[in-house]
Design goal:
21% of the residues lie in helices and 28% in strands. It is of the alpha/beta class and 269 residues long. It comes from Formosa maritima.
């Protein structure tokens, strides 16, 4: 993974907002830190490190530059004998107060045919996961791990008492709404997270005069820019249909004749 690609991913991560403010969603308190100049990302990351784990490394790099935060533990595996009960993403001291932090970075599309509430409508682009599923997992599995009897022994290594530890999430997201959607009144999420739209195969004809780029998944983090190997419509269509046939929804960049670039999911459903 070359330095330029990593830094483009890191900057894309840095510029992704929290999905909500405060504890507005499921009473999950967001970690809120001021934007700071963390310089370039200059740490080693294996080229095959998947996107979620890559984001965790970006988070830790950013937090190291926050003067009032100290990282006590990263990716703390909680094991009972030879069985892994789960992982605590981070133990921090924020202004000398201990915090258990869970890190989440997601891509969701808005489909109002799913569920009954606005939160229900945010789902993964492949329809295999959803925002509500992740929120429930945080509330019922990931955060309660702190209070497991086995975890208490790990906390002793950091001179921490569980009663003193508060819990926060760092939940960032890139959100995509239906093509030509007129809906603007999203009540529960940070509207700054909405950075693109999604289309299905039939709607691609609207972009026949455009050019296209299909980034690799780790580069979904990256903010679009013009210096990439763009594909003409016919070649792009050939490539994207083979992806859609596998029931996979790729993220693509679409460059219009006027130079405007959109970040778009092409959904298979």
């Amino acid at each position: 993974m070359n330095t330029k690609s990593l830094n483009l991913q890191y900057q894309g991560y840095l510029n992704t907002p929290n999905m909500w403010f405060g504890n507005a969603v499921y009473n999950l308190q967001q970690l809120e830190i001021e934007a700071i100049n963390t310089s370039n990302f200059n740490e080693f990351i294996a080229s095959n490190l998947r996107l979620g784990k890559r984001v965790e490394q970006f988070v830790f790099h950013e937090l190291k530059h926050v003067t009032y935060i100290s990282i006590l533990a990263e990716n703390l595996q909680i094991q009972q004998e030879k069985h892994t009960l789960g992982e605590i993403d981070a133990l921090l001291l924020i202004d000398n107060k201990p915090v258990h932090l869970e890190i989440v970075y997601k891509f969701y599309v808005y489909d109002d045919s799913v569920g009954n509430t606005e939160l229900d409508h945010w789902i993964g682009p492949n329809r295999k996961d959803s925002l509500v599923e992740k929120l429930v997992k945080l509330k019922n599995k990931q955060l309660p791990l702190l209070y497991h009897s086995v975890t208490l022994k790990y906390l002793e290594n950091y001179n921490l008492e569980v009663e003193q530890i508060s819990q926060q999430v760092f939940f960032k997201a890139q959100l995509f709404v239906p093509y030509l959607s007129e809906k603007t009144n999203y009540e529960w999420v940070n509207k700054d997270c909405i950075i693109g739209f999604y289309v299905n195969k039939e709607e691609l004809i609207h972009f026949k005069d455009c050019k296209f780029y299909i980034p690799s998944k780790v580069n979904w983090l990256v903010e679009s820019y013009p210096q990439v190997p763009w594909l003409e419509y016919s070649l792009f269509l050939e490539k994207v249909i083979s992806i859609l046939d596998e029931q996979t929804s790729p993220l693509v960049w679409i460059k219009h004749p006027n130079g405007e670039i959109n970040k778009v999911f092409i959904v298979w459903w």
